[in-house]
Design brief:
alpha/beta, DHBP synthase, Rossmann fold, nine-stranded mixed β-sheet, four-stranded parallel β-sheet, 11 helices, binds adenosine monophosphate, binds magnesium ion
């Protein structure tokens, strides 16, 4: 299959690209679309055959559910049933953060096919702020299921050319909406009513993202995720009790990974280079004072935030830079930690997952 990239940088181009995407989606095809987080691989969320193509194209396991995109908050009830006890809180959140990079986990409506939610009774819902994505949703008049437009477990694409690297020949169309303005996948949040009904609701951040814990804490009490315990038992017993789907499969330990091994080096003094290997440094701000720059004769150094350690800049460049390092032909990528506040929480989450080997 020939993969076409259509530009959107004049109003005529945009009109044509939107129309082609809507036609393809309406006939059960998949297309790659820009959002403000990363590029998504889109399908009509209410058409199970179309959604099956998303899984097949990405080689994504069927236990990993997709995010459903709707046009506006007032369409929420078409895909999700908001429980009365948290209705007020959900309204506050959608008013504050939609359109934008916040995904809410809510009980699903029966019209949402099981394949979308991997059999879960809940659905992940979001309203994208990207104007082209928004126009396509309006044209289609149906919700869109769209996970990131990369092959499963690999680096999320933040440009049309990165989607091409991932899915060339597998999809008919990539709509080029420019570089993604956030650069990291959406924050995924599950809201639980307060136990006593009066205090703030409980917020479970299932995946940290561009909407930060600092922004969310005004609206609810953030609950720390429980570490996973390994239950004791025979292998058969464990299998029988294994949850069929992780609560948020972004939680899979190894994810967002380049093909080249990546290691998050929390402290420079822990580096013991193998003299036969070539290493690249993924530096946070390129400042020698951080102790990493002069640690080794690096084969290549790439700086996440050349603007002296600005987290939004580091987030926007993150996946782009990982792709660049993956092409550099080194044996291992050594990553510096970033400041773990605000957006830094999401960046550190991606670095830890990229450094975990399955
Ligand atoms: P991606 O856009 O590729 O990051 O994939 C969408 C992500 O949404 C998945 O990895 C899940 O983490 C999350 N997700 C989708 N549906 C649910 C759900 N019902 N419950 C929890 N997480 C979900
Ligand atoms: Mg993904």
């Amino acid at each position: 299959m020939q993969t076409l990239i259509l530009p959107t940088d004049t109003s005529e181009f945009a009109k044509d690209a939107v129309a082609r995407a809507v036609t393809l989606l309406g006939t059960g095809d998949v297309v790659a679309l820009p959002t403000e987080t990363v590029y998504g691989l889109a399908a009509d969320a209410l058409n199970p055959e179309a959604v099956a193509k998303v899984f097949a194209t990405k080689e994504r396991p069927l236990f990993d559910p997709l995010i459903v995109h709707i046009r506006r908050a007032d369409y929420l009830a078409t895909v999700a049933a908001v429980p009365e006890e948290i209705e007020k809180e959900i309204n506050r959140l959608t008013q504050e953060f939609w359109p934008g990079p916040l995904t809410l986990i809510l009980p699903k409506q029966p019209c949402v096919p099981d394949i979308v939610t991997a059999g879960l009774p809940t659905v992940a819902v979001r309203v994208s702020a990207h104007p082209i994505f928004s126009r396509i949703l309006r044209g289609l008049e149906r919700p869109i299921a769209a996970p990131s437009a990369n092959r499963f477990g690999r680096i999320s694409p933040t440009s049309a050319s990165a989607v091409m690297e991932e899915l060339n020949g597998r999809i008919p169309l990539i709509v080029d909406g420019g570089a993604c303005s956030c650069g990291l996948e959406s924050t995924i949040l599950r809201v639980e009513p307060a136990p006593d009904g009066k205090a703030k609701p409980l917020f479970h951040i299932l995946r940290p993202g561009p909407i930060t814990p600092e922004q969310l804490k005004e609206f609810g009490k953030i609950v720390k995720a429980k570490p996973r315990t390994n239950p004791k038992g025979t292998e058969a017993e464990l299998e029988a009790h294994a949850s069929p789907a992780p609560e948020a499969p972004g939680m899979l330990a190894s994810h967002y990974a380049p093909a080249t091994p990546l290691r998050l080096l929390e402290r420079p003094e822990d580096f013991r280079p193998d003299p036969t290997k070539r290493y690249a440094l993924l530096s946070y701000r390129g400042d020698a004072k951080d102790g990493f720059l002069n640690l080794h004769d690096w084969h290549e150094v790439v700086i996440l935030s050349p603007g002296a350690g600005k987290l939004p800049e580091a987030a926007v460049r993150f996946f782009y830079v990982l792709r660049q390092l993956d092409r550099s032909g080194v044996d291992e990528i050594i990553a510096e930690p970033v400041t773990e506040v605000g957006l830094g929480v999401a960046i550190m989450d991606r670095l830890r997952r990229a450094s975990a080997r399955a």
